[in-house]
């Protein structure tokens, strides 16, 4: 997929060292039509299926696809004309989020085994230099600029038990009997050079905040994305880890035909067996017994020489 030159986008997802499958999912959408792009902008999202729950991976993928389908169906132009840019986009995102909730509910109603499956969902729409987002769960959105950094989302998780979410997108086989959690909304204005990151908790919990900020500040986007995933794996690796980074370069081009740039997708997701495959002994390990024998011979020689002096 290619995007217009006003941004650069990179993303990657890693299964980690302990999980068998990856329940994270990432969405990057940009209309090809110039008029549609001017009205709707681009939609970027990340969802992290609730680990340990039945259908976590299905929940994350279903939620993002339903969000996109609803976003394409809603009349963004009418909402913006009536309520203004920020409020109009927020209302459209709220409608798309509600559609994602309904999609999970329908799946649970059709298959009771999926009742209770859940996912986080953090997504934003970027129109020119403005982003407006919707958020629920413990994935996070971070803005980084020349003057600092700011978390744009809260963490909906228990302070005593971080793995227990206090708010999430959860499938309900009987929606009338269970009240759905309400999402939060966020927004920001961008200047050239700003970066916006979506991260699952497998990444942001693993990497110390100072190290993560230093990595993003000091590296080009195509270098920072895989480096963040590798560091999350090296430090922890107990969970799936995902990141999507947008770098705003200014409104240089809104035309998709003006040398669009390829999205940088890093391929870090490897099978569990490949990560744990046993390795043969190294050259040093093979030489070690011979080295010990040589040292023993030398020591015996020295002892004999001292004795017979």
Structure write-up:
The protein is an alpha+beta fold. Helix content is about 40%, strand content about 25%. It contains 9 helices and 15 strands. A 6-stranded mixed β-sheet has the order 9-8-12-13-2-15. A hairpin with a 2-residue loop joins β6 and β7. The longest helix has 26 residues. The protein is globular. The termini are far apart.
Which features would summarize this protein structure in a list?
five-stranded antiparallel β-sheet, 309 residues, alpha+beta, 9 helices, 15 strands
Main sheet makeup:
6 strands, mixed
Number of strands: 15
Unreliable residue stretches: 269-286
Strand order of the largest sheet: 9-8-12-13-2-15
Radius of gyration: 25 Å
What layout of secondary structure does this protein have?
Blueprint: E1 2-3, E2 7-14, E3 24-29, H1 34-40, E4 42-48, H2 56-73, H3 76-83, H4 85-110, E5 118-119, E6 121-127, E7 130-136, E8 140-145, E9 148-151, E10 169-170, E11 184-189, E12 195-199, H5 201-204, H6 209-218, H7 221-235, E13 241-248, E14 261-262, E15 264-266, H8 272-276, H9 283-307
Parallel strand pairs: 2-15
Antiparallel strand pairs: 1-14, 2-13, 3-4, 4-6, 5-10, 6-7, 7-11, 8-9, 8-12, 12-13
